[in-house]
Amino acid sequence: MPKHFKRGVKREHHFLKGLEKPLEMIAAIPGVKKVIPGRIYASDSRGFEIKVSRETKTGLKLVAKSDGSVQDVFLVVDREDRKRVWEEIEKMADGWRRR
Question: N or C end: fewer C-beta atoms under 10 angstroms in the chain?
Answer without folding.
Answer: C
